[in-house]
Write a structure and sequence with these properties.
It is a single chain. The strands form three sheets. This protein has a four-stranded mixed β-sheet, with helices on one face. The chain is an alpha/beta fold. It contains seven helices and nine strands. It has two domains: 106 residues; 87 residues, no CATH class. Bound molecules: zinc ion. The site of zinc ion (ZN) has 5 residues, from α2 and α6.
């Protein structure tokens, strides 16, 4: 298990950007949102840290590096985004109707905050696991984000540890954590072969952060 991660609190936001519709869900699966979040967090490895603000907005699209809401004709539809410096996660409001996917994607986003706290040694350890997979010519991943990032890799990216490669490693880490802790047994993007899944789970279980 991940240990010595600093207790993380998810605060549902009541505000919304001026140009978007506010939708703060009162209930998920018949329970008040805060209860649902407490129960969700209790299923994760112990994670401690400053609060992360959580917003549910409608019609999310990514356009030229910006997250838009309510402008479906601009950019590519996305389910979630994290703003690390602002400690804010934005989720598509339709996920409220799909708690399993919500749990999976929220876990992915939370682990973006974990990734930036990992020691260099832990990051390297995860990266080494990916090098081993690539040497073995695996072609699959454990989530959509890492599959997309992997598709974008070009010759030389891995050897040079380019920005594209490092971005792929980060997405792969977050997808692996979502696979391990997100509560879904089957998902169409869990395509990595079982032997490699086991290796990733082992790496994840060894990971430590540099500060609590
Ligand atoms: Zn991601």
């Amino acid at each position: 298990m991940l240990t010595r991660l600093p207790v993380l609190t998810l605060l549902p936001a009541n505000r919304s950007p001026a140009n978007s519709e506010t939708l703060t869900p009162a209930r998920i699966q018949g329970r008040p949102l805060s209860n649902w979040l407490d129960s969700y967090l209790s299923g994760l490895p112990h994670i401690d840290g400053s609060p992360i603000h959580l917003e549910f907005l409608s019609g999310l699209t990514a356009h030229r590096g910006r997250l838009l809401t309510g402008e479906p004709e601009r950019g590519k539809a996305v389910h979630a985004a994290s703003f690390l410096r602002e400690r804010r996660i934005v989720l598509e409001d339709t996920l409220i109707e799909n708690p399993s996917l919500l749990r999976l994607l929220l876990t992915h986003e939370i682990f973006h905050f974990v990734w930036i706290r990992l020691s260099n040694g832990s990051r390297r350890e995860f990266e080494q696991a990916l090098h081993r997979e690539h040497r073995a010519r695996t072609t699959s991943e454990l989530g959509e984000s890492s599959a997309v990032a992997r598709e974008l890799l070009q010759a030389g990216d891995e050897a040079q540890r380019s920005l594209r490669w490092r971005s792929y490693v980060c997405e792969s880490f977050c997808d692996t954590a979502a696979w391990a802790y997100g509560g879904l047994k089957c998902y169409r993007y869990f395509r990595l072969a079982p032997e490699w899944r086991k290796r990733r789970a082992a790496v994840l279980s060894n990971i430590r952060v540099s500060r609590a």
